[in-house]
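Q&A FORM
Asked by: J.P.
Topic: structure of Putative two-component system sensor kinase

PROVIDED:
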Amino acid sequence: MAADTRSISEAWTSIPSPGDIGVGLERFTGQRMERILAIVAALGSAVLGAQAMLGALTRMDHMDGRHLALMILVFGPLLWMIVACVSDRWVTRACGTFAVSYVLALLLWPVIVVRNTDEAGDQPWIFFLVNIAVIAAMLAFKPRLQFAWALGLPFVYGYVRLVQGDFSQSFWITTAFDVSFTLILGMVIVSLGWMFRQVAAGVDDARSRAVETYATAAAASAAEEERVAMSALMHDSVLAALIAAERAASDRERTLAVAMAREALTRLANTEASIAQEGNDEPVSRAQIVAELRRTLSEHGADAVVEERGVPSAVPGRVARAMVLAARQAVNNALEHAGGRGLHIIAESTRADGLTLTVLDAGPGFDPDAIGEDRLGIRASIVARMAAVAGRSHIATDPAGTTIELSWEQP
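REPLIED BY: S.T.
REPLY: Here is the structure written out as tokens.
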């Protein structure tokens, strides 16, 4: 299946540069984890809050105005906390408010509630919210305060409960059980919250390092691609314009040299615009490619022909541009090193969706292994350029001449 090269290119270039990674990307997993914890806290608070509310309403006959004010002090911030966790707005403020107001309600409990030593086995409605206050602290405070709430609230509740029962023996037994239960559950809640946040932070750190690595690789790849493109551009256009200017002997040749120089300078100024260099992906017919090659031969004053074989076909615009530039470089090499002897170009449609350009000359040939590393005429302008569009290049040379075959087929 053919790949969408434009989409891949856009996705690759959208990778942020090193050091430019946004906070939203770095904290993605942490933010999701905070949202999950808030939703779970809202569900647990709603269930236990409803249970505490029912327990308080069943004792309405024994309540006065102070007890009602105590209920408002507890259930008002609790309702705000539930709404904030569900809506994901002001979660820290709402949870912190409830955590503090619950502590105040606990401290006021012995003053407001009538002491009754006969209720040792009946848990007061405020007991059901001890661990909800711990959850609120987990969402609102730093780890030290979270553990302080988890350790301290059960003992505060136990002391208040004993005060209510005048420290009678029956209250000691039930209160000890309640304190141990809430203490263990509170520590588990805070520990799980801390563990989940640490895991999320580790995932975010790993993602951040991975994106930094990809960004560095993208920057290196872009720099290398720009270097190759610049080298190919210098060799193809600038050097060809200089050679044409040096060899210009007539007014027409000088005019062509000026045109070539102007084109080379324009392309050099637009080096960073890869689309402008390579063209778009609109199909280009073989006739247009042949016309471009004939124009190249005419500009160089070469006495050569471009032969067409096979049925007419079309190739994507970028492929056509790459093949024309590679063939132009092959023509330049034939003119420079072989004097244009036996220069001949064949444009052949191998299939309905494929094209092959063959550039032949009758020069003395050359040794590919003897070409210096700094000479990019073949490596960059022909081989690399065809490889960039998923094409193939084959170079055969001997003392009888050189054949350069450029081919591309629809994937």
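FOLLOW-UP: Confidence is low (pLDDT under 50) at residues 1-25, 269-279.
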